[in-house]
Amino acid sequence: MLITAVYPGSFDPVTNGHIDVIERSARTFDQVIVAVVRNASKSPMFSIDERMKLLTQVTSHLSNVKVDHFEGLLVSYVRACNAQVVIKGLRAISDFEYEFQMALMNRTLDSEVETLFMMTSNRYSYLSSSLVKEVARLGGPIDKLVPPLVVAEVQVKLLHAKH
Ligand code: PNS
């Protein structure tokens, strides 16, 4: 049986930590769908289309990875894709409680969808999209945190925000 995994998230923007999880998932599963959530309650730096475009570019070397977006319940989206697994990256103990809660809720909603946690690599355990944006806004370097393409796009956003 071919296993398709969905890796959901905001990806605002994609970081090296996300890419690490995507690359390792692509080696583990037959197909990986990176799914950008449409979340009305957040005010993102990048639109859904911009986030998808960045994700498509930074995963272009992975032939079994595709990028999509969804809104509504994650488990409904997973079903609609004929996927079996949800991948979540776990960075630190602080992630665990909320992720555990979401995994159990998703299992209650659909007991056939399995949530699998992938431990992040040590070097990315502190990394988050929010921190990347904060460091960039305060003038700090983000070139070790996100791919060069994303560094450039964040700088463009910040320039536009100033004018
Ligand atoms: O990158 P993020 O913002 O931590 O990703 C959060 C995400 C997309 C995984 C989460 O918000 C989600 O699963 N949204 C879908 C809504 C849903 O299914 N909610 C009920 C189950 S917890």
Protein model, in words:
This protein has a single domain (about 5-125), classed as HUPs (Rossmann fold). It starts with a strand and ends with a helix. The chain contains 6 helices and 5 strands. Strand 4 (about 85-90), helix 4 and strand 5 (about 115-120) form a beta-alpha-beta unit. With about 160 residues, the chain is α/β, with parallel strands linked by helices. The model has no long low-confidence stretch (mean pLDDT about 95). The longest helix is centred in the middle third of the chain and has 17 residues, at about 95-110. Helices cover about 45% and strands about 20% of the residues. The chain has a 5-stranded parallel sheet, sandwiched between helices. It is globular. It binds 4'-phosphopantetheine (PNS).
The CATH C-level name is Alpha Beta
Terminal Cα span: 53 Å
Major β-sheet profile:
5 strands, parallel
* Arrangement of strands in the largest sheet: 3-2-1-4-5
The structural domain count equals 1
Mean pLDDT across all amino acids: 95
Helix run count: 6
Rg, rounded, reads 16 Å
The CATH architecture classification is 3-Layer(aba) Sandwich
Measured by DSSP, the beta-strand proportion falls in: 15-25%
- Name of the CATH homologous superfamily: HUPs
Series of secondary-structure elements, N-terminal to C-terminal: EHEHEHEHEHH
Helix-and-strand structural type: alpha/beta
